[in-house]
Amino acid sequence: MHNFRKIKNNVYYVGASDRRIELFENIHHVSYGMSYNSYLVKDDDTVLFDTVDISVANAFFENLAGALGGRYLDYCVIDHMEPDHAATLAMLAERYPETRFVGNAKTFQMLGQFFPSYSFADRCITVKDGDTLKTGEHEFTFVMAPMVHWPEAMVSYDALDKILFSADAFGTFGALSGNLFADESAFYADYWTDARRYYTNIVGKYGPQTLALLKKAEALDIDMICPLHGPIIRENISEYILKYRIWGSYEPELNSVCIFCGSIYGDTMNVSEILASTLADDGVRGIALYDVSKTDTSRMVAEAFRYSTLVFSSVTYNNRVFPPMGELIDDIAALGLRNRSYAVIENGTWAP
Questions:
Q1: What is the DSSP string of 97-124?
Q2: How many Å apart are CA 129 and CA 112, to the nearest integer?
Q3: What is the pLDDT along the chain (352 residues), one digit of tens a residue?
Q4: CB of 178 closer than 8 Å to CB of 188
């Protein structure tokens, strides 16, 4: 059985969702599951944009075969080599021995690392920034996007249908529930929460590289964005680009205070509650308070990106900061968050 979907003219969605997954990259909680997107364009030549995670391989190959309808697969464009998008490349190569693979020099270096026992050597087409591939009516332009969020990452632009195949850019957490488009998504009410959490935790370290890609994207006439995770974007594209520009610039979205609290017996939490109440009495709106022991770190990282002022309120533990608080601070530091005001509250009976 197959579940491929036509999304525009002769462009098809052939990806699939994993609803069993609980931790994306074995670290980020995904209550809605996760989608692994792949797209097929049927022209004089057929071209596939990326494969999928091994967890949804069977559904993907059924969808691809159904969409091809007995035709050969001429090209597979590898926009991103991370295993959640490339784990099934060797399986694809075996099933479709005529297929040629399109990527950049770093792509094919990684291809050899991931699949050392399979030779792609005589089937690779190496492209550089601005190179094109014509498949009939369609002409695809390849735009390098290094460190968004791996060094080999690139995006592909279809000039005919004005589609940007955006790799990990503009992605979000969550499985797809029949409706493939962001404006029709069942979890659209939570879209920005999950999109922000995805960007900040997956791509957030690479703000300057994100801005560089956005600058390139501004020169393109885009009617649709097809990311490798989450719903397809076809409305209010400028709004999505603006959000990415804010996130990539490390600018806060909300001029308010977010308090992160690490408390053992409740006293440090009480201090944090008093601080929140005092701030509210002084007219501060939109205050957030999180218990670092009970809240997924990826959600708190996203909130740190959203708020202008951060408070870290922590008990001492083993003569160091409370471990869940330490994990949060380490993550925020690793992601390079900047342009924030912050305060620290420490608590310890004999050695704070």
A1: TT-EEEE-HHHHHHHHHH-TTS--GGGE
A2: 21
A3: 788 999 999 999 999 999 999 999 999 999 889 999 999 999 999 999 999 999 999 999 999 999 999 999 999 999 999 999 999 999 999 999 999 999 999 999 999 999 998 888 889 999 999 999 999 999 999 999 999 989 999 999 999 999 999 999 999 999 998 788 887 655 556 788 999 999 999 999 999 999 999 999 889 999 999 999 999 999 889 989 999 999 999 999 999 999 999 999 999 999 999 999 999 999 999 999 999 999 999 999 999 999 999 999 999 999 999 999 999 999 999 999 999 999 999 998 888 8
A4: no
Maximum CA pair distance of the chain? 75
pTM given for the model = 0.94
Could you give the angle at the alpha carbon of 28 between the alpha carbons of 285 and 103, nearest 5°?
A: 115
Distance, CA of 215 to CA of 210 (rounded, Å): 9
Which residue has tokens 């701030």?
A: 279
- Quote the tokens at residue 292: 């670092």
Burial 314-336 (b: 16+ CB within 10 A, else e): bbbeeeebbebbeebbebbeebe
User: Would you say 62 and 1 are in contact if contact means Cβ atoms under 8 Å apart?
Assistant: yes
Q: How many CB atoms lie within 10 A of CB 257?
A: 23
Phi and psi at residue 315, to the nearest 5°:
-75, 160
